[in-house]
Design a protein that fits this description.
Blueprint lengths: L8 H17 L10 H21 L7 H21 L1
Helix pairs in contact: 1-2, 2-3
Amino acid sequence: MARAQSELQVITFAKNLCSYVMTITQKAPKQFRFSLEGRMQGYVLDIVEELYYANDIYVTPASRSGWAQRQAHPQKAMATLKLLA
């Protein structure tokens, strides 16, 4: 019997954060609706996007460029998370 492939736990947490931010920002006051709220929503979507990109890169022990590329995406996600905080 084949096992179902599950998502990485960090992606699941990022999706939960995205869901939380989307829910909270729906009730934001009108003065924040197009500035702060839009940026927060964009940040959480960027975090999920970067984690998916990092997970999608296939890396072999011989490919050093693949490792560097794979490490760059989580670093971008972490920097975006710091901006969100």
